[in-house]
């Protein structure tokens, strides 16, 4: 089943440390707590320098959506820039991460998967006109990061997205994407075999 997630209907939750807020787009299983989810997709606004929360056993990917980006000091691995030249950073949830703003607040797309249950791939795609899309994961999510609108259609459905909307796909269908100019993030989640 295909599910549209309109961003306009979601509410941000402030961080405990006051340094930002997170808007949850999707979580599995539905209604899971932060220590029980299999996977979670969210949009976070980093408004102040500070540490990230620890998520043991979780793999994380961050992609820049808006703002000048941040510098991430990750354990002993060094400093990584999340900006328009390097718009994607991956790290383990148990890593100690310190975020430093690069001149102003930053909005980031955040993917988390619990390592013992599943893993993910996050990709960025620029659209201009009409293109085909075939979901590859056991669960596949598309997020409209830039652009005013995106039309997503199959033989039986037509769905319109505006910026920051997301869609969870029926993965057995080939889709047509149509946008004047847009950037999307595609998350493919693969469930670990028992």
Written description of the protein model:
The structure is a single chain. With 194 residues, this protein is mostly beta strands. The chain has two domains: 3-117, Jelly Rolls (Sandwich), CATH 2.60.120.10; 119-191, Jelly Rolls. The protein is 0% helix and 60% strand. It has no helices and 17 strands. The two termini are 24 Å apart.
Could you give the topology of this structure?
Layout: E1 3-5, E2 13-14, E3 20-28, E4 39-46, E5 50-51, E6 58-66, E7 70-74, E8 78-82, E9 88-92, E10 97-101, E11 106-114, E12 118-133, E13 139-146, E14 149-153, E15 158-162, E16 166-168, E17 175-191
Antiparallel strand pairs: 1-16, 2-3, 3-4, 4-11, 5-10, 6-9, 6-11, 7-8, 7-10, 12-17, 13-16, 13-17, 14-15, 14-17
Shape: globular
| CATH T-level topology of the largest domain | Jelly Rolls
> Structural class of the helix and strand makeup?
mainly beta
Largest sheet: 7 strands, antiparallel
Please name the CATH architecture of the largest domain. Answer: Sandwich
Count of the domains: 2
How much strand content do the residues show? over 45%
Our count of helices gives: 0
Q: Give the N-to-C terminal Cα separation.
A: 24 Å
Tally of DSSP β-strands: 17
């Amino acid at each position: 089943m295909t599910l549209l997630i309109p961003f306009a209907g979601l509410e941000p939750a402030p961080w405990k440390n006051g340094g930002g807020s997170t808007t949850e787009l999707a979580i599995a299983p539905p209604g899971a707590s932060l220590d029980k989810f299999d996977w979670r997709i969210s949009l976070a606004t980093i408004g102040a320098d500070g540490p990230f929360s620890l998520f043991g056993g979780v793999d994380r990917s961050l992609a820049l959506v808006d703002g000048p980006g941040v510098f991430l000091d990750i354990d002993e691995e060094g400093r990584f820039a999340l900006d328009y030249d390097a718009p994607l950073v991956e790290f383990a949830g148990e890593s100690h991460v310190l975020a430093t703003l690069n001149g102003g607040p930053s909005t980031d797309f955040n993917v988390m998967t619990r390592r013992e249950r599943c893993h993910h791939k996050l990709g960025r795609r620029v659209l201009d006109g009409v293109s085909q899309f075939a979901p590859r994961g056991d669960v596949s999510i598309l997020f409209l990061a830039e652009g005013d609108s995106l039309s997503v259609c199959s033989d039986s459905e037509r769905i319109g997205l505006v910026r920051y909307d997301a869609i969870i796909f029926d993965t057995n269908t080939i889709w047509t994407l149509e946008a004047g100019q847009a950037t999307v993030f595609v998350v493919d989640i693969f469930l670990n075999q028992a």
